[in-house]
Every structure is written in C-alpha cells, then in structure tokens.
Design goal:
InterPro entries: DNA-binding_RecF (IPR001238), DNA-binding_RecF_CS (IPR018078), P-loop_NTPase (IPR027417), RecF/RecN/SMC_N (IPR003395), RecF_2 (IPR042174). Belongs to the RecF family. The strands form 4 sheets. The protein has a 6-stranded antiparallel beta sheet with strand order 2-1-4-5-6-7, with helices on one face. It folds into 2 domains: about 170 residues, P-loop containing nucleotide triphosphate hydrolases (Rossmann fold, 3-Layer(aba) Sandwich); about 210 residues, RecF/RecN/SMC, N-terminal domain (Glutathione S-transferase Yfyf (Class Pi), Chain A, domain 2), CATH 1.20.1050. It contains 11 helices and 18 strands. Helices cover about 40% and strands about 20% of the residues. α4 crosses α8 and α5 crosses α7.
Length: about 425
C-alpha cells in the first residue's frame, strides 16, 4: 500500500495544496511552523480518524472556514483508490471512496498507516488513556469490525453510567437494579471481547517490539509489555502506587497468569490460582483459562464493586479502566527509563505495530510515517533507524533540517514553505 497523491483544502494552514509521493522514502523538509506535520497529520487521520496532535477535529479546519477536506489517491492491492473525508466544524464528518459515500468509521478499511511523532513519548510517560487508544487503533487497523464493538461498548458504558448516577441521586430502587443488570450483561459481552483482543494483541507485539528496540537502540534492554486489567483488581486511579494491580505478561499467560508485585516488578510472583485471560488467536467473549472465562471474571468484578459504583455513580471495572505497562530492564519504563530509553521504547512500539500490520495485511505494508524523529537521535541511532525502515514500501519523513536525515532516505524530497510546496 502507498499514497500516490495528497490533496488538502482548508486543512490547517493549507488553503489548497497538491503533493505527489513516490514509492520508498519521501522526505518533507521545511522550517518549523511551515506545515510539514500538517501533511502527515492529514494522512494519519485517514487511517485512524483521529489526530496525534489534538483531540477535536475542528482544530484541523483552516481558520474562518466551515470544513476541511483530505483527499488521497492510494495504490491498494494493485488498484487505484480515491479516498476522501470532509471534516465539518458542525455536524457529522463525511467520507467517500471512489466518489461513493461510505460511513466515516469505515474509512480505515482502505488505508493503513503507522505514525510516530514526538507526542508519542506520552505513550510511555502519560496516562493510561493514551495507551488504551494506541491498542484500540491498532486493533481496528488489523480487524476493522472492532470499530463497531468499541463504539457499542462506549455507548453501553455511557448508558450504564447515566443509570448509576440516577440511582445515586434518587436512592437505589428495585426497578433500577433490574435495569442495571441488563446493562451489565451487554457491558460484559462487549467488554470481554475487547479485553481478550487487547491481551492477544499485546502478546503478538512482544517479539517484534524486542527486535525493533534493539534495532533502534543498538542494545537489548529486555523491553516487554504487561496488560494491567481492572477485572483482576488493577486500579487505574492508583496506578502510580501499583499495589493492587494485576499485570499480566502475555508471553506467559498461556501457561499461567503472572501477577506482578509492583514494588518488586523485577519478576512475577505466585499466580492467582490460575486465573487469567485467554491469549489464543480466536479471541472473544467467553475465552477461558483455569479459573473460568473472561466473562465470568468480569461479572465477578462488577459484583465486587457494585456498592462503590452506586456511591460514585460510575463504572469502575472494564476495558475503559485497563492499562498497558511498559517494562524495560525489568522495571516499569514509566518512572525509571531515561528520556532516550523512553523515546526508543515508543519508537520501537510503533515499528512493532507496523511489522504486525505488514504480516497480516493482504494489501501490503502500512505507510510508515516518521514526524520530526531524526532531530532527537544521535548519528548512530539515525543510521540504525534508517536501516530499520528502508524495507517498507513507503516511508514519509518530516524534518526541519535536511542534514538530520540519512542520505538514503532523502532521494525524494519535498520542500514546504508557508503552506505551499516549493522548489528545493
């Protein structure tokens, strides 16, 4: 898969721009504030329906305009596709493929990309919501139907929270309890599928993460991932203390569930009676391990926090409360890793994601996007990163300084100045 042409109208600082791209590396160069990142942000939006820079889509519309348009020509499975999304300041966004209207949420089915930017350092150092979003976006890129499952779960969660708030305000009533149990069933059904799919994804990321980290850092610091699950007692609000977390190591849970003692994160301690979450490739609600299915664990967890939920008026367990723990040198990267190590971990995580997508995609490699990455790296890491990405069908790179980027990645260079493509 690759982008052959990008057209923007009223997007960020671009009134209108046309940008051709070539196979292999494409380097976008320009001083800070000229619009380099805006180009790759637009492409990232096509594949994830979100921006890596802002949480509201209206921020991407050019000042004074009611809508912005992203239009990209793609080479997809040997055929050409024209994909388009109109981002509206008010009302729903609109999407088309080959001039036919589609549901906006179906757009990622047609374009797969992995973007790494300085903001991704927050994956290591930020709050759990960013790590959940990373997993869910990757899940949808690999299995587009999960977009519907995630949307349904969010809807059910909102409805259940509304009922809990109502029960708190008016006092618990029998009719409300009966309605709550109906929402419980749907929450458990959808949430269990999300939990199982996330845990399986974490397991699959393990090997390519280790390979990518060593390729970037030049050293093996033992990077791996742990799924911290609220249905097993992990407490998002107390994640810093980590005392009550149940963190699962995907590569080990097939045989046993490794519960990590937070103050001695160096190694797993004794198991929780064999309880755990399935990591088989045929994931979904009902996956089982020694102590029962994910749905059983979810239902028991909801029962255990019922009184607390009614007191607080919110749902306290489920995939919306889970976390992903990054381990490096047998310690949590958050709080222990240096800036350079954190940067390498976040970059390796994105490279590992791209590797998974290229393994199971019939449409070829995802487009790999590196936004302002090379300025943060020393010469040796620049060379190693260049070697790690040159095998992808298409790589888009932004840089403020041409000399920061290894020569082998600068064969096709696009110069940007004040929202326009200019001659070099």
């Amino acid at each position: 898969m690759r982008v052959t042409h990008l057209s923007l109208t009223d997007f960020r600082n671009y009134a209108a721009v046309e940008v051709p791209f070539e196979p292999g590396p494409n380097l976008i160069v320009g001083r800070n504030g000229q619009g380099k990142t805006n180009l790759v942000e637009a492409l990232g939006f096509l594949s994830t329906l979100s921006s890596h820079r802002v949480s509201t889509t209206s921020a991407m519309i050019r000042a004074g305009q009611d809508a912005g348009i992203i239009r990209a020509r793609l080479e997809y499975n040997g055929r050409d596709l024209l994909t388009e999304v109109q981002i509206n300041r008010s009302g729903l966004n609109r999407a088309q493929v080959n001039r036919s209207v589609i549901k906006t949420r179906d757009l990622p089915r047609y374009f797969s990309s992995v973007l790494f930017a300085p903001e991704d350092l927050a994956l290591v150092r930020g709050d759990p919501s960013g790590r959940r979003r990373f997993l869910d976006q990757l899940l949808v890129l690999r299995t587009p139907r999960l977009a519907g499952v995630l949307a349904d779960y969010d809807r059910v969660l909102r409805q259940r929270n509304t009922l809990l708030k109502s029960a708190r305000a008016s006092g618990l009533r029998t009719t409300q309890m009966g309605t709550l149990e109906i929402w419980d069933d749907r929450l458990i059904e959808l949430g269990s599928e999300i939990i199982d799919d996330r845990v399986e994804l974490v397991r699959q990321l393990g090997e390519p993460l280790r390979t990518a980290y060593e390729a970037v850092a030049g050293e093996d610091h033992g990077p791996h991932l742990l799924s911290s699950l609220s249905i097993m007692g992990a407490d998002e609000e107390n994640s810093g203390a980590f005392e009550r977390s149940a963190a699962f190591e995907p590569r080990a849970v097939v045989e046993r569930s490794a519960v990590v003692e937070p103050r001695a994160v160096v190694e797993p301690v004794e198991t929780l009676g064999g309880a755990g979450v399935s990591t088989s490739s045929t994931t979904g609600a009902g996956s089982t391990t020694g102590a029962g299915s994910t749905t059983d664990l979810f239902r028991a967890a909801l029962s255990g926090v019922r009184r607390k939920e009614l007191d607080r008026g919110m749902t306290l367990v489920g995939p919306h409360r889970d976390d992903l723990v990054f381990m490096l040198n047998q310690l949590p990267a958050k709080g222990y890793a240096s800036h350079g190590e954190s940067w390498s971990f976040a970059l390796a995580l994105k490279l590992a994601s791209a590797e998974l997508l290229r393994r199971d995609s019939a449409s070829g490699d995802p487009v790999l996007i590196l936004d302002d990455v090379f300025a943060e790296l020393d010469l040796s890491r620049r060379r190693r990163l260049a070697a790690a990405v040159t095998g992808f069908q298409q790589v888009l790179i932004t840089a403020a300084v041409l000399e920061d980027v290894p020569e082998e990645l600068a064969a096709h260079t696009i110069h940007i100045n004040a929202g326009a493509v200019v001659d070099g």
